[in-house]
Amino acid sequence: MIDREAAITKKNNLIHHMEKCGSLLVAFSGGVDSTFLLAIAHQALSDKVLAVTESSPTYPSRELDAAINFTKERGIAHLVFQADETSIAEFVSNAPDRCYHCKKFLSNALLEIAKKRNISHVAYAANMDDLVDYRPGIGAAREMGIISPLVDAQIYKEEIRYLSKKMGLPTWNKPAMACLASRIPYGEPITAEKLKMVEEAEDFLSDLGFRQYRVRHHGSVARIEVENSEIIKIVEPKLRKTIVQKFRQIGFYYVTIDIEGYMSGSMNKVIKK
In what order do the strands lie in the sheet with 213-218? Predict the structure, then answer.
């Protein structure tokens, strides 16, 4: 249970902090955190804010569409730029520090855009909960001078959802989303083909009505994670058969259900701390 008054105070402090930025570029994915950050920035700075979204093989097309629709509805300046992380050797090799190299690559692109448009700061939407998990990309962003206002304001995920709901943001209860590369086990090379298979499989689960899901790519095996409450649903004979048929069309020979259920960052279990 969050302290609602404390959350509102943090929000007000965040707005006050944003007003001092002058101008701001927000790395915008359309997820819960970046939508909240962008909405706050727009409230504080109005037309001095630019939302920037990457279009790449690691970013689901439906997420890009949602991001574009949000900025259009709110009248927020929005730039979509093309990128391809599969051009980064360290990213493709998929070592545990993959996100470090990816974030450095993307941070450089954002800084270049900001420089060309004379924007003083570049921000991304890391929050306090992100500091607990293994997130090498956070270090890369810090090295590149990308600011993290939600961390500076000590705002947590549940506070973001609560405040987003009060602000009328459609993302307040949106399921967590992560880069499609996070579906491929460390050490297994990342390819555009694998990413496309994962995206198509997850789009299918979304169309079937599943709320929170991941399709982990283990070579010829698809390991599906859904919320514990939906495991019974996904193993229902008729639906299970439909999923297996579709996944085999996509390119998976075997289709499995992880009985532990959905777990954010489950691929990080293999990392020796």
Answer: 213-218, 221-226, 254-257
Q: What is the pLDDT of residues 154-166, one digit of tens each?
A: 999 999 999 999 9
Tens of pLDDT, residue by residue over 36-93, are: 999 999 999 999 999 999 999 999 999 999 999 999 999 999 999 999 999 999 999 9
Domains of the chain: 4-166 (3.40.50.620), 180-270 (3.30.70)
pTM reported for the whole predicted model: 0.93
